[in-house]
Amino acid sequence: MPLELFTVGEPIADTKAPTDVPIGERWSERKFRGRLVNPANRRKLTVIVVGTGLAGGSAAATLGEAGYNVKSFWYQDSPRRAHSVAAQGGINAAKNYRNDGDSVHRLFYDTVKGGDFRSRENNVHRLAEVSVNIIDQCVAQGVPFAREYGGLLDNRSFGGTQVSRTFYARGQTGQQLLYGAYQALERQIAASSVEQHARTEMLDLIVVDGRARGIVARDLVSGEISTHFADAVVIASGGYGNVFYLSTNAKGSNTTAIWRAHKRGAYFANPCYTQIHPTCIPVKGDYQSKLTLMSESLRNDGRVWVPKERGDDRDPRDIPESDRDYYLERLYPSFGNLVPRDIASRQAKNVCDEGRGVGPGGLGVYLDFAEAIERLGRPAVEAKYGNLFDMYAQITGEDPYAVPMRIYPAVHYTMGGLWVDYDLQSTIPGMFVIGEANFSDHGANRLGASALMQGLADGYFVLPSTISSYLADGPFEKVDESHPAAVEALTGVQEQVQKLLSINGNRTPASFHREVGQLMWDLCGMERTDEGLRKAIDRIQEIRQEFWSNLKVTGDWHSFNQTLEHAGRVADFIELAELMCIDALHRRESCGGHFRAESQTPEGEALRDDENFAYVAAWEWTPAGQPPVLHREDLEYEYVHLAQRSYK
Amino acid sequence: MTATHEGAMRSSVGNPAAEKRGMNLTLRIWRQQGPTTKGKMVTYKITDISPDMSFLEMLDVLNEQLIMQGDDPVAFDHDCREGICGMCGVMINGQAHGPQQTTTCQLHMRSFADGDTIDIEPWRATAFPIIKDLAVDRRAFDRIIQAGGYISVPTGTAPEAHATPVPKADSDAAFDAATCIGCGACVAACPNASSMLFTAAKVTHLGLLPQGQPERNDRVVNMVAQQDREGFGGCTNIGECSASCPKGISMETISRLNHDLLGALRAGARPKS
Amino acid sequence: MTVEHAQRRTPKVAKTNSVFKKAVMAISGIIMVLYLIAHVIGNLKAFSGAEAFNSYSGWIRTVGNPALPGQTTLWVIRIVLLVAVVAHFWAAVSLWRQAKRARPQGYVTKKATAQSYASRTMRWGGVIIGAFIIYHILDLTTGTVNAEGFDSTPYERLVASFQNPFVTIFYAISVILLGMHLRHGIWSATQTLGQSNRRREKTVSLFAVAFATVLTLGFLLVPFSVLFNIID
Ligand SMILES: Cc1cc2nc3c(=O)[nH]c(=O)nc-3n(C[C@H](O)[C@H](O)[C@H](O)COP(=O)(O)OP(=O)(O)OC[C@H]3O[C@@H](n4cnc5c(N)ncnc54)[C@H](O)[C@@H]3O)c2cc1C
Ligand code: HEM
Ligand code: HEM
Ligand code: SF4
Ligand code: F3S
Ligand code: FES
């Protein structure tokens, strides 16, 4: 390992989970041991929540209900637009309504195994426990989950599980869950317990005497940059998949909030763990700005195939069965088309690398519903997937009822994020991180329908309980904008913004974003190699240099300036990209979404190295030119035994 | 771009294949610096647009060129670019979200022909003040939700999910209404600039479910009062809204709102001031 | 904070709930429709000759006598109608103004997608109908603007008016506008009163068209019969 790329620091450990009791009792025990804040005192405590997705929205609403003063920030015009709104497939819960053998323990087990043994058992078990309360809460809020004729909730099986535990609202589950949280949040805004800051972007964290005490934010409409203070800061800013430029994330999804907190001392865990979703609409041209996911549920009835022969460019309907390779069914007879995402994605890449891909540039595989339409009839297929088929037709201009869809993997979710302990507190006291922005729960690979579960678990149930232990020490000494730490943070942000505007070079922020994204996709995407990652790191450093000397941003910062917003985000993506590559380079094993070509079984499956890598890599930022410091959190498996994943 | 700027456009000269494929378009776009400044339509020419581009990708291309010329790019709202967040939305040739019943981000350039002139304007309504160019402030919708578009159920107080079965038909109809993405096209298209379809969608969603019953009367009375207060127009059943709604929210929801409102007024419900 | 600004912005508050105004319109509209049904039947008595027509006019003035003094019934009808027209007019104007305030600056380009011709002409059509009603009362009830003057019989006034083709054409235009007003208005009223739904929509629309057509034809019959000397 090249020492110049990083150094190794002290190990790190979670100290909050009460490991002296059995795993099933730890969460209640933690709540019991935690300290409480008396309702009369809550009014005196202020909490900043950045983000209004499932995690941030539910947290802000719940904290507001509890009586804290909440300040809520988001960059879109309305909280209802957080990218959670785009989640299609569903949300898991261990309700066992289907009587098919599901249980909290099974959900826990599946999630630890699905995460390829790189997540923390305690957190995952709590997630499984809380999952059942989430469904109750959402139903009471009026979330219109799919129901059976008897009036009870329907479930489906989703993404690599053998029980039906996924609750869904057609193909718009995220939207409906988010609206539930959003409405709860608006209710609190009306009740004045939550103060709203729409179209306001967090640009720095204010740390006073080692505690997170506020943020610096820019009002995107007026351009005003100002400081906001609180007794605790909660970050729920979502995932950073947009580091790849093309992803299924919203255009505004960014790493800025967590990256700048990282630069203030919060460790960044497992940055290289990225989930590449197998069923997206393939790229069309270089103008493409965004990739669209087709729900994974399509794999329940669609069959994935490519021609057996490379270069077979016949109309798919003219290719006889004998000339088709249903490669997932061939390679994984027991899971077939339902293998987990990382496997489905990598196999799609493999067949395309073999030259058997279909569509423009050979980057696509067929997802064929001909058999399902024959078996179920077109109306049934329409009822199940109609909106997805319409979306596909709208985007591609092709009719998926007649011709097989073409799909290709795309960046979808980031398992990495800021390191948090069992209380969801980062390495900066007083700063909590929830939802996709933290690293917890999913290990090296996230199972379908479990991000929504985690976001809501964190926001509705976990954070509101654990944060009180911290706040019980408050209210902390008053800080205002004259505090040196606040002044320093504020001027730092102002200077950066000024700098972005003054370079006046020859390239737009989008062109840098596209370049770094393509590089990441090629060298830190579905398959990573030592050589490729080193090349990427070198190149990223060059891009960074060029960015700061050749960027062009028009306008000023005292007004609505979307180019400036983008420039700031790209600056952070470039820095993050480098850390992702360093993380990927140092992890010389394959696990979950991280496939290192050097570490595979003879059959080409991912080969984990538990001996050397059964740990969380938590990275510490070091200023100017210093290599980042690696802190390892060793992972122990008491309840689920380490085993090689197999979906054969 | 004015004629003098055309030379700087990404040109397809020397690339006959692209020239054959790409479209040349004239865009007339509403440019307005800020909420209080005067705006006007400005004409730009753009070349070599692929029919597979989305409408917003076409605007991206224009903006990249404007930035490189040192001009101010056109501000427009967008986020998910997959038709679900409701952030995008402009008037295209006089129709909200353009010629198809979809969101602006899901509109593709194949809906236009080579040589077309396309007029692009922001949503126009007093309740949606213009922020800049094509971006407007739709927070008024949130305040309508604040007035009652929720079910009051503090976290942790919910009964077991199966305690209350909901007939599938009601649940499905509630879902149809709940798919409203809050884009504002209904307001933009309505000759009265009325937010009725948006409000009705939420009233219908919650009013159809057993969980929504306790607050049903207060909800409708307060939400309607709020939309009047925000400065939206009243609904006179014209139907442009539903025809422009990317989620196809039906006029039936408005009838349901009216029904609930008159019932609530008869039952003595009055808006909170 | 801009957010706060936005929230504190105080647009001119519509004093009365917009849906309530619409309900006022629907109910007053329905009252007027009921009157028009009776009115068109009354008009058709012109075909039975002057006698029948005038006696109908007399009957309406004396019905209920002697239990009710003088022209009670007529005045009750008149007052109810007046209130209905005024309320209808007030609600229409108030919603119209609210709409104007809601979008002071229009679009450079605007295309209608769903609006029918009938729904688009509700406002100006309504105003013309209003003007017509005033003229019509001055013409046939008071005789103020009638060639026969006010001490003639209703039948004389009727014949005198419609022998003038310009008057007949003005009536015809107004009545056709009224038909369109009702074609949209009837559907609209069911919607306003919360009685329409997807199942009923077709039926209501069909009924509205049929009703508006029959009423319009019924009203047109008398003037044109006079013009073409079928009635004289
Ligand atoms: C297309 C798609 C489909 C998916 N489908 C599923 C599914 O079926 N099941 C499932 O379980 N998971 C799914 N996921 C994953 C899941 O949706 C996300 O992981 C989850 O919703 C993230 O929620 P969040 O609250 O953490 O963040 P988000 O919902 O992304 O919210 C982020 C919030 O932070 C705010 N924000 C961000 N940066 C800043 C800043 N700098 N300053 C201020 N505010 C900021 C934003 O305004 C926003 O409010 C899907 C994801 C995608 C992209
Ligand atoms: C005084 C002149 C009149 C004016 C200015 C007027 C105006 C209007 C307007 C603006 C509407 C609402 C348009 C809409 O719903 O789309 C309307 C509705 C209606 N009008 Fe009139 N109108 C007038 C006279 C009449 C008359 C004489 C009748 C009946 C005979 C009538 C019956 C109706 C009905 C039934 C409605 C539907 C109510 C509703 O939408 O809920 N109107 N009118
Ligand atoms: C075109 C055919 C019509 C004819 C031939 C006609 C005929 C008459 C006559 C003869 C009278 C006077 C009756 C009397 O004084 O006893 C009258 C009154 C009246 N008509 Fe008509 N009318 C027609 C259409 C309409 C229409 C379309 C309207 C309404 C929109 C209308 C509204 C009235 C009203 C309000 C009165 C006054 C009733 C009163 O207060 O006495 N009429 N009409
Ligand atoms: S009702 Fe339709 S048009 Fe109106 S905001 Fe909702 S989705 Fe948009
Ligand atoms: S177009 Fe406008 S008038 Fe009503 S029916 Fe729709 S809100
Ligand atoms: S950008 Fe989200 S709906 Fe268009």
UniProtKB/TrEMBL annotation, chain C:
A Pfam family the protein falls into: Sdh_cyt
Domain of life (superkingdom): Bacteria
CDD domains registered for this protein in UniProt: SQR_TypeB_2_TM
Transmembrane segments: 20-41, 75-96, 117-138, 158-182, 203-231
Keyword annotations of the record: Heme, Iron, Membrane, Metal-binding, Transmembrane, Transmembrane helix
InterPro entries linked to this entry: Cytochrome_b-558, SQR/QFR_C/D, SuccDH_FuR_B_TM-su
Compartments where found: Membrane
NCBIfam families per the UniProt record, alphabetical: sdhC_b558_fam
The protein's name: Succinate dehydrogenase cytochrome b subunit
Organism: Blastococcus carthaginiensis
